[in-house]
Amino acid sequence: MIDQDFFWTELLKNQTEKTTNLIDKILQITPSTSDNYNRLSQLYQRIFNFLIFKNKTLLTETNLVSGQTSSEDQESTVQSMEKEVAAALESVIPRAALSPFMMLNNT
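Predicted structure:
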């Protein structure tokens, strides 16, 4: 029981550190008039990466709890999840709306 508690504590600690790192990378992107398209693309990619990480984290936790380990099932699930995340992100924050989103104060 103690080993299991330690495992979950370490897993949560690592996920928290990674989450903080991804959020910090998103917040580091600042608006620029000369290189706006590249910065918007970079912002979109970092938000997408954050969402993928969070969803993979949930998927991993679910698999650990349920004991599922089939790599073929996981691969197809991850591919489906990536498509769903991309569609959801595009519907919530379309690329055209990123410029005003980027101008918001991040504090």
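Summary: Residues 17-27+35-103 form one domain.
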